[in-house]
Write a structure and sequence with these properties.
This protein has 337 residues and is of the alpha+beta class. It is built from 8 helices and 13 strands. It has a 6-stranded mixed sheet. A 5-stranded mixed sheet has the order 5-11-10-7-8, covered by helices on one side. The chain has a two-stranded antiparallel sheet with strand order 12-13. The radius of gyration is 27 Å and the shape is elongated. Bound molecules: dinuclear copper ion. The site of dinuclear copper ion (CUA) has 9 residues, from loops. The site of dinuclear copper ion has 9 residues, from loops.
Amino acid sequence: MRRWIPLALLLAPGAAGAWPMTYLVSHGWPAGPIKQLGWGLLALSSFVVLFIALAVLIGIWWKRGRGAYDEKGWPVVTRGPNGMPWLMIGVPVSIVLLLLSAIWTFFVLAHAAAPPGHPKITLEITGHQWWWEVRYLEYGEPARTFQTANEIHVPVGVPVRLKLMSADVIHSFWVPQLAGKTDTIPGQTNVAWLEAGKAGVYRGQCTEFCGLQHAHMAVYVVAQSPKDFDAWWTHQLQDAAGPPAGLALQGQGVFQSRCAICHTVRGLAGSQGAMGPDLTHLMTRSTIAAGTLPNNSGHLAAWISHAQSSKPGVDMPTENLTGPQLQQLLAYLQTLK
Ligand code: CUA
C-alpha cells in the first residue's frame, strides 16, 4: 500500500503550496485549456501503449509453443496468412488519432496566443542572467509606469498582456499554473498573456537553459483582488520614502557610494543604475536574488557580503564592507518599503 502513496500524490496535487510548480492544476487562463490538453494527450498515449502491450502479450500467448525452433533454441518467426488485414486497420487508426491530437494542439495554441479582448494591463518583462526586470506600462494613464523585479502583481480576473524580451541570452518565462511557456529572445519582443482565476501566489521559473544560475531564476506572480492591486500599484509608483534618520541615513550614504551605480532607488540622488534590479520598494518583495533566498535581514546580509556563495557567477560583486557599514546598509534597505 505504502508504495502507492507517491503515485496518489502525483495524481492529486490539488493541495497546492507543496507543489508550487505543478502544471497538473491550473488557476488561470490560458493555463486551463493547456492543462486539459496535457491530461488528454497523456490519457490517449497511455491508452495506445496499454493497447499495443496487450496485443503483443495476446499474440505471444496465442502462438506459444506452436512454432519451430532453430538449433540455438530461438523461435523461428513465420508469417501467417492473416497479418496484413490487422495492419490495414492499425495504420488508419493511428493516423486518425495523431491527426486529432495535432488539431486539438493547434486549437489550444491558437487560443493561448490571443486574448479575448483588449488587455487592461501591459507588462514589459525582460530576462537577464539571472533575474526578471518588470516594467508596468499601460493601466489607466501612461504616466503611471514604474519598474520592479522578480515579483509580479496582477489583479484576479483581468487579462494581462506580457511583452517578453531579453537583455542577453534566450530565457523562457513560465508560470505553469497561469499560462504556457514563452521564450524571451534577444532583439525580439514576444507577446503572451495571462489571467489569474484565483487569488494566490504562483511560482514561475526560467525554462530555457541560460547559463550557470538558470535554476536560480524564479519569478513570483501575486494575484490579488483588483482593489488590493490598485493599492499596490499606487504604492509602487511612489518614490522611496524621504531621508531616513540615524543608522539608516549613514546606510544611505553607503548605498550611494557602493550600490547606486548598478541599482536604482527612485527619489535618491545618484541612484539610477540599471545593471541590477530596481530596489525602490525592495522590502515589499518576498524573496531576493530572483527567488533564491527569502527576503529577511539575515539573508540580505549574507547576499550583500558574499553573493557568490549563494549564486556563483552572478553579476553582484563582493563589496568588502566593514561590519558597521553592513549594519548601516541593512538599516537603510529596511526603509525601502
Ligand atoms: Cu534564464 Cu534559464
